[in-house]
Design a protein that fits this description.
The protein has 289 residues and is of the alpha/beta class. The protein is built from 13 helices and nine strands. The chain folds into two domains: 160 residues, NAD(P)-binding Rossmann-like Domain (Rossmann fold, 3-Layer(aba) Sandwich), CATH 3.40.50.720; 116 residues, N-(1-d-carboxylethyl)-l-norvaline Dehydrogenase, domain 2, CATH 1.10.1040.10. The longest helix has 29 residues.
């Protein structure tokens, strides 16, 4: 059985590692803050002191950190993955990062006789917990085929979209859509409340019609419970919208609705909600009243 390395034991990583452990894999783990890995260590994961040590001890190395700069550090840093002997190994980055970073990692991996896949995910903290994530993969067909059964341990939808970087481009397409569903969700709630409607009834009704969507289904109930915990951090959504707008700029595309969503999330960040979940967007209205 292949030994798995996993770097990044945050909201998403910890649940995904749980599925690997449940399936009896040996999992070598590393996280910037060790205390966030304690529960996993008690659950059977093996702590390693650096990304390079994880890579040295594993056949497949999975990363799920925060920002492209974290990805850079984990792969190219002084104690990074590329400092280890990774010949014949497979590197999989689940972080939502840039297509250019994915291409760079793929290039460096092939120089080390290894293969790399960019494989960002969608489905949120609950998707990770339930093992029902959607995984969007970029890279070579053969590496993809060899990793499919592993990725299926925590996903219910998996597809190869093209060469290195295509997974990240697909994730950006996903985030452009989510920008619209999140702004739609909060403006719908703000409107329905002002109109004196019963919000639970409205959510049920619009969810069954043409306005039904994932954001409504997953985040509307949290908003009604005043649960603004992440889920998906505001700071990470801003990171994603910045990448999406930068990439669209490179393609001479103008995406005004995505820009507007990013401006609203920037405002939310300035109000101190970086560490909250993206459903806290509603605070721009409900806190302002
Ligand atoms: P998170 O809770 O912040 O987890 C990221 C983890 O990576 C943290 O534990 C962090 O360590 C660790 N890390 C960061 N830089 C590191 C480094 N240089 N070396 C070692 N560990 C490092 O975030 P998350 O919600 O799991 O999200 C992770 C990624 O998935 C992000 O790119 C996000 O955009 C994406 N994503 C998230 C969701 C979601 O719903 N949450 C859904 C899809 C995609 P510390 O403990 O020191 O902070």
């Amino acid at each position: 059985m292949k030994k798995i390395g996993f770097i990044g034991t945050g909201v998403m990583g910890k649940s995904i590692i749980g599925h690997l452990l449940d399936n009896n894999y040996t999992v070598n783990i590393y996280n910037r803050t060790k205390s966030k890995a304690e529960t996993l260590i008690s659950g059977g994961a093996i702590w390693r002191d650096s990304p390079s040590e994880v890579a040295e001890e594993s056949d497949v190395i999975i990363t799920m950190v925060g920002y492209p700069s974290d990805v850079e550090e984990v792969y190219y840093g002084e104690l990074g993955i590329f400092k280890a002997d990774i010949s014949d190994k497979v590197l999989i980055d689940l972080t939502t990062s840039t297509p250019s970073m994915a291409k760079k990692i793929s290039q460096t991996a092939s120089e080390h006789n290894a293969r790399a896949l960019d494989a960002p995910v969608s489905g949120g903290d609950l998707g990770a917990k339930n093992g029902t994530l959607t995984v969007m993969v970029g890279g070579e067909q053969e590496a993809y085929e060899s990793m499919k059964s592993l990725l299926e341990l925590f996903s219910s939808s998996l597809m190869l979209h093209g060469p290195a970087g295509s997974g990240q481009h697909t994730k950006m397409a996903n985030q452009i859509m989510v920008a619209g569903t999140m702004t739609g969700l909060v403006e719908m709630l703000v409107y329905a409340e002002k109109a004196g409607l019963n919000l639970e009834k409205v959510i049920k009704t619009v969810g069954g019609g043409a306005a039904g969507n994932w954001s409504l289904e997953n985040y509307a109930p949290r908003i009604l419970k005043k649960d603004y915990s992440p889920g998906f951090f505001v700071k990470h959504f801003i990171k994603d919208l910045n990448i999406a707008l930068e990439e669209s700029g490179k393609m001479q595309l103008n995406l005004p609705a995505t820009k507007l969503a990013k401006n609203l999330y920037d405002q939310l960040s300035q109000d101190g909600y970086d560490e909250s979940g993206t459903q806290s967007l509603i605070k721009l209205w409900w806190d302002a009243e």
